[in-house]
Amino acid sequence: MTVVPINIRSQFANDEKRIDSTWSINQFKSKMEFITGIPPEKQQLALIHENTTATPLNDDNRTLQSYNLTPYSTIKITNVDGEMDFGQYSDKIALGMSDEQYQTRQDTVLAYKREHHIGRFATSDIRQQKEQMIIDQSNKLAAQISLNQRCMVDERIGTVAYIGTVEEIGPGSWIGVAFDNPVGKNNGSIKGHQYFECPPNHGSFVRPDRLSFQLPEPTSNDLDEI
Question: Mind telling me which PROSITE patterns this protein's record contains (predicted)?
Answer without folding.
Answer: CAP_GLY_1, CAP_GLY_2, UBIQUITIN_2
